[in-house]
Amino acid sequence: MSDGQAVMAPLEPTTALTVEEVLTVRHWNEHLFSFTMSRPASFRFRSGEFVMLGLQGEKRPLLRAYSIASPSWAEEIEFLSIKVPDGPLTSRLQLVQPGDQIYLGRKPTGTLVTDALLPGKRLFMLSTGTGLAPFMSLIRDPDVYDLYDEVIVVHCVRRVSDLAYREELESQLAEDPLVSEQALVQLHYVPTVTREPFHTTGRIGALVESGRLFEGLKGDQRFNPETDRVMLCGSMDMIKDFSADLESWGFTEGSNAKPGDFVIERAFVG
Ligand SMILES: Cc1cc2nc3c(=O)[nH]c(=O)nc-3n(C[C@H](O)[C@H](O)[C@H](O)COP(=O)(O)OP(=O)(O)OC[C@H]3O[C@@H](n4cnc5c(N)ncnc54)[C@H](O)[C@@H]3O)c2cc1C
Ligand SMILES: NC(=O)c1ccc[n+]([C@@H]2O[C@H](COP(=O)([O-])OP(=O)(O)OC[C@H]3O[C@@H](n4cnc5c(N)ncnc54)[C@H](OP(=O)(O)O)[C@@H]3O)[C@@H](O)[C@H]2O)c1
Q1: Is 155 near ligand 2, meaning CB less than 6 Å away?
Q2: Which of 163, 222, 235, 260 is deepest in the core (most CB within 10 A)?
Q3: Range scoring the smallest mean pLDDT among 13-17, 34-38, 264-268
């Protein structure tokens, strides 16, 4: 266990939580980090789902929802996290080190799963900030390349250093043991930065309007409900605005119970 303030006493499993060990930690910048932890043998999830995780609070576990960034086949579980300076959880979670203990919920769930979408040709994954996390899970899952001809990951952030996983994505997951060959042909990465100079700038809506989003893709140079499926994850405002746009273009929202043309999940509350 580390000397930091993140973990104070050994954690005890509960009916809802297992206790896992932090394996690796990667700090992207002063706002973002990712970490991996052990995976219990009983932990099953679909790529794209989220789960509760946390540390011990004053009286009870202090838990927050987190999208799983690793694919369903992986031995370790990975997360991408914001560092909210005064955040009850992340002000401490950002201090974790390999060997520390973390609570992990036993019941992953969520709507950013291919089961909630109808079949299609192109899958667009539109994210802001930490909303990239569930898409890192899905694009490392071979199933997604069997289901769609083209898989497009859009990551919209304020600053260049907020582009977590940029190298992996720019290389089209060249080092990935399972999907590198499919990703090389089918994966498209579109990073965009809104508050610093970069080769691509502007919010996702601006990329749709300019046509930048569709550059290099087969098919229409616009969203088409006949061929396209869309997943949205990020700020509430982005999701609200973009859902309205998609509906105006003839897309219907899907769920686990009733698959549709697009699905949404907010990356945080507030
Ligand atoms: C379904 C779901 C999935 C989530 N997945 C992730 C994830 O993969 N990674 C992650 O970092 N967070 C994720 N969150 C947010 C996460 O649950 C916590 O809010 C976050 O860890 C901060 O916890 P906190 O206790 O430090 O601060 P909180 O009290 O929870 O949040 C304080 C404020 O910080 C801001 N904030 C919180 N989280 C974010 C964020 N991710 N991006 C931008 N601003 C934020 C909001 O304004 C919020 O009101 C998810 C939330 C939901 C509902
Ligand atoms: N990332 C940082 O550098 C930074 C620095 C200090 C504090 N913080 C704090 O961290 C929290 C989260 O910051 P964040 O940068 O992860 O998330 P964010 O504020 O949601 O911004 C992420 C990206 O989403 C875009 N965006 C915001 N609203 C949108 C909408 N309605 N439609 C389309 N795109 C939209 C932003 O563009 P715009 O730039 O055009 O808004 C930005 O590129 C905030 O509370 C912030 O105060 C972040």
Answers
A1: no
A2: 163
A3: 264-268
Summarised one tens digit per residue, pLDDT across range 46-66 is 999 999 999 999 999 999 999
- Which ligand number lies closest to the CA of residue 127? 2
Amino acid identity at 185: V
Distances (CA, A) of 181 to 105, 130, 214: 33, 26, 22
How far is Cα 231 from Cα 120, in angstroms, rounded to an integer?
A: 13
Q: Which residues line ligand 1 (CB under 6 A)?
A: 50, 64-67, 79-82, 84, 87-90, 129-130, 133, 265-270
Percent above pLDDT 90 for the chain: 94
Residue 128 Cβ < 6 Å to ligand 2: yes
Tell me, what amino acid is at 206? Answer: A
Instruction: Write down the pTM of the prediction.
Output: 0.96
Residue 182 Cα to ligand 2 midpoint, Å, equals 32
Task: Enter the tokens of residue 87.
Answer: 């955040």
- For residue 269, what pLDDT is reported? 72
Q: What separation in Å is there between the alpha carbon of 71 and the centre of ligand 1?
A: 21
Structural domains in the chain, CATH included, are 17-105 (2.40.30.10), 114-266 (3.40.50.80)
